[in-house]
Design brief:
Helix content: under 10%
Largest sheet: 22 strands, antiparallel, barrel
Radius of gyration: 28 Å
Low-confidence stretches: 1-12, 14-30, 120-129
Structural class: mainly beta
Distance between the termini: 18 Å
Strand content: over 45%
Length: about 850
């Protein structure tokens, strides 16, 4: 039976190997760039120990694996994220042997452990000291699949929500967006050593399912030299592998929930010493796919499917190959406001993602490892407008674009004595194809004239400011003459754009991590060359220092890095084209920026159960990047601001699992001030001077508590509490601005005057009561609004999520029945992510929603 299984397994995947490894001669990095700890266990006479139990764990991240020694007394743990680990060996009649090691590179670590008879050694032999703190100069957070599995997550959020909940200084936004350390989506995913720097939110691409993730390291400090392009946040993901699982393990689950949301997922891992396969599939359909501009979801149905397959093959003890294949599809309606729904607006978007990434590693001697990987990825986004253009308000738009990325990465790691050196380079090309159309349907959006009181004219006969006087009106200062030919309400036609370009990038890097007693030094140098619609080359030094105070269990750190920030690829061609000038923008290519980044912090352990990390960061960037949204749709265009200044603090507290209880808290405070002029975007309202962008938030914290009880059936409970003080929302600078909003918009922010609350059908036109404001928006007092010192903000909010589960309901040994129940926004808090934001639009946080899942694990 086993022979048949492997024959089937090899037959199914041989075609994938041929296709993937035909892309490049060298292949790509095996085992995802993760570390390996291996060794031999011997008895007191020097003979090998067979079937001795070996475990490895990291208490802070929750990582834990177990194995047994083979006939040669050998054990191996592959696919290890860079972290310190505690290794223990136990066998009946022998005293436990333990060793503490630090995995800092992909070069395998060899351990030779000797057991002693229990009668001779009555205490545990510990080599080294178990530490909760890390001597790493780079600020980062680690989380393992065991913690991820018990986080209460919304049905369609997945990986983005895990990152937001677990990373300090990462601010949540709608539709899977997040703002890492004061930036908009300046995030690089490194998935088994494949760099993915294009956006991964629900409206741009299809993410890898969190079910495929074994562990994540989220770098929020100055990144090492091997990372570039997008590096405010580096998410290093190691996916699950089937290596070493001679008996298939996995799960199958089905579920349902609020908003008519059926879902299912299937995961299986199987393999042996030299071959392994992990396969994951998931699907979801829901009536609330995107975060809508109303608390009630209108025209918001969607579905998604995700497939991930990882194949590992070790033809020898020194060679490893792997292949990752990902496919994803999502198809969803674009949600409406009440007014848009009444007009019959029906817009739709579809995204397909294909990714193939083969890999190869080879060990030379005992301290050199060659790693290479290649990747081919394609995202296709299709946006379809309503059948009736005038059903789309205030404009109708269509889009069909592709992003095709091909590249490779090769590096050599060398570990000797106090040095861990890595030298390598990357090369890549991204072919962009864009087709876009736009027509204005609301005659007040780009009217040339307005009344003296500032009311916009809807007179469709008016097409130039010269006509304003004859109509007893004045010129509108925001009028864009170039848009008149594309104003359908004035008899115009659709703006049509078709264009493309290939963005080429090359880089090299060298870095060394040096252990010098109590100090650890990271030094590195990176060079990048960007050749696209604009060109730039930059040499980027990176340096970091940490110092350990063992007696007090304290780590002090400081680091500096220069980085090159490249333009976003999504809709880059039009945003950089002279065609964009019709929208009142510069119509010139967006250019890469340069950033100076400093981070300093302290990590402190308290006893054996609690560790705290505090950090301060400061980033100054020329050509600071962001996005501008088009009409509150999922269509965004990149924007480059003259410069930005971002600083703030981060903190994380980890309570290591004890007595079934574990917890963590992440904290952030961010100042994000950007300065015009801006390049790119379309229909972008540019502030007159410095301004706090919508990434800016005074304070946020997330606390997650997990408790395992009734071990016999694997019962557990988890609670997440998130507090956000509110992002900047620049559209309503005074109560007078709020009075000019539509009834629907006033109702969205909860505008009130005395005891009167605005409704879509009954807006508030005037208010003399001193008791006035908005429930979901903090509006500055009249005359006090300032884009830097006192901008309007989303009102503070507390959100609570709850998860309950039983992992072995019937208390069986093999197939185990699992039941889970999740509630998102437990108190049904009605609140906003943002409101009429130039950069994000308007979106409500999910109302109270439940999910029920049942399935089996085996």
């Amino acid at each position: 039976m086993r022979t048949r299984w492997w024959s089937c397994f090899l037959g199914v995947h041989v075609a994938l190997y041929i296709a993937a490894f035909g892309l490049v001669e060298a292949g790509a990095q095996g085992l995802g760039g993760a570390g390996t700890v291996q060794g031999t266990v011997k008895d007191p006479t020097g003979g090998v120990m067979v079937a001795a139990a070996v475990s490895i764990n990291n208490a802070v991240s929750g990582f834990k694996r177990e194995t047994t020694t083979d006939q040669a007394g050998h054990f191996a743990f592959h696919n290890l994220p860079p972290n310190p680990y505690h290794v223990e060996v136990t066998a009946q009649g022998f005293a436990t042997v333990a060793s503490d090691i630090d995995v800092r590179s992909a070069v395998p670590i060899e351990l030779n452990l000797s057991m002693k008879l229990a009668a001779v050694a009555t205490s545990v032999e510990v080599v080294g000291h178990v530490e909760l703190v890390e001597r790493d100069p780079t600020a980062h957070t680690d989380i393992d699949e065991s913690r991820i599995a018990r986080l209460p997550l919304a049905a369609s959020s997945g990986l983005s929500q895990v990152i937001t909940l677990a990373s300090p200084g990462v601010v949540s936004d709608a539709n899977g967006f997040f703002h890492p350390i004061g930036d908009h989506a300046q995030t690089q995913f490194s998935i088994d050593n494949q760099p993915v720097t294009d956006q991964q939110s629900r409206i741009y691409s299809n993410q890898v399912s969190q079910d495929a993730v074994q562990s994540m390291e989220m770098i929020t400090g100055v990144p090492p030299a091997e990372f570039g392009d997008k590096d405010s946040l580096v998410v290093r993901i190691i996916t699950k592998s089937g290596l070493g699982q001679s008996r298939p393990t996995g799960s199958f689950n089905v579920g349902t929930g609020s908003f008519k949301s059926p879902s299912s997922d299937f995961n299986i891992g199987v393999g042996g010493k030299n071959v392994g396969n992990f396969l994951s599939f998931s699907g979801l359909r829901t009536n609330r796919f995107l975060d809508p501009p109303e608390f009630k979801a209108l025209h918001d149905k969607g579905d998604s499917q995700s497939l991930f397959d990882r194949v590992d093959f070790r033809p020898s003890d020194v060679d490893s190959l792997h292949l990752n294949v990902q496919w994803g599809r999502s198809s969803f309606d674009v949600p409406n406001t009440l007014d848009q729904d009444a007009a019959g607006q029906a817009q739709h978007q579809k995204i397909t993602t294909i990714n193939v990434a083969p890999g190869y590693t080879r060990v030379f001697g005992s301290n050199v490892l060659l790693a290479a990987n290649a990747y081919v990825r394609r995202d296709q986004v299709t946006y379809v407008a309503s059948a009736d253009p005038f059903a789309d308000q205030p404009g109708t738009a269509g889009q069909n674009r592709q992003l095709r990325n091909i590249g490779g990465k090769v590096d050599v790691s060398y570990s000797q004595g106090v040095h861990n050196v890595k030298i390598g380079g990357t090369v890549g090309a991204t072919k962009l194809t864009e087709n876009f159309s736009l027509g204005l349907t609301d005659p007040t959006v780009n009217t040339p004239c307005m009344t003296a009181a500032g009311d916009l004219s809807a007179n469709t006969a008016l097409k130039t400011t010269a006509q304003c006087g004859a109509a007893s009106l004045v010129a509108n200062p925001d009028f864009i003459p170039g848009l008149v030919p594309f104003d359908l309400s004035r008899g115009g036609r659709l703006f049509q754009f078709a264009g493309g370009s290939t963005i080429k990038e090359q880089s090299f890097y060298i870095q060394d991590e040096i252990s010098a007693g109590a100090a650890t030094v990271k030094v590195g140098l990176r060079g990048d060359h960007y050749d696209g619609l604009s060109q730039k080359s930059l040499i980027q030094p990176r340096v970091g220092l940490s110092y350990a105070v063992p007696k007090s269990k304290t780590i002090l750190r400081v680091s500096y890095g220069r980085t090159m920030e490249t333009p976003y690829n999504e809709n880059l061609v039009l945003a950089s084209s002279a065609n964009a000038a019709v929208f009142g923008t510069a119509g010139e290519p967006l250019r890469p920026g340069t950033r100076d980044h400093v981070e300093a912090g302290v990590q402190q352990a308290f006893g054996a159960w609690l560790v705290a990390d505090f950090g301060y960061f400061h980033k100054h960037t020329t050509n600071g990047y962001d996005f501008g949204v088009l009409f509150d749709t999922p269509i965004f265009f990149p924007v480059s601001w003259d410069h930005s200044k971002i600083d703030g603090i981060t903190a994380r507290l980890d309570l290591v699992q004890h007595g079934g209880f574990s917890a963590f808290t992440v904290i952030g405070h961010t100042n994000a001030i950007f300065s015009p002029p801006g390049t790119g975007g379309i229909l972008l309202g540019v502030p007159p001077g410095d301004f706090r962008i919508d990434h800016d938030q005074k304070f946020q914290q997330t606390t997650n508590l997990q408790y395992a009880f009734v071990k016999r059936v694997g019962a557990w409970a988890a609670v997440t509490w998130r507090y956000d003080s509110g992002l900047v929302a620049g559209a309503v600078g005074s109560y007078a601005d709020a009075l000019a909003l539509t009834g629907d918009q006033q109702a969205a922010i909860g505008l009130f005057c005395g005891s009167t609350l605005a409704t879509p059908d009954a807006p508030i036109a005037s208010c003399s009561s001193p008791s006035r404001g908005a429930k979901r928006l903090n509006i500055p007092a009249d005359g006090s609004e300032d884009d830097v010192t006192n901008p309007p903000r989303i009102a503070p909010r507390h959100l609570f999520d709850l998860g309950l589960g039983v992992d072995n309901l019937l208390h069986t040994n093999k197939a185990k029945l699992r039941v889970r129940f999740t509630v998102i926004n437990l108190t049904n808090k009605e609140t906003l992510y943002n409101f009429l934001s130039t950069f994000s639009g308007t979106h409500f946080v999910t109302p109270r929603a439940y999910q029920v899942h049942a399935g089996v694990t085996f």
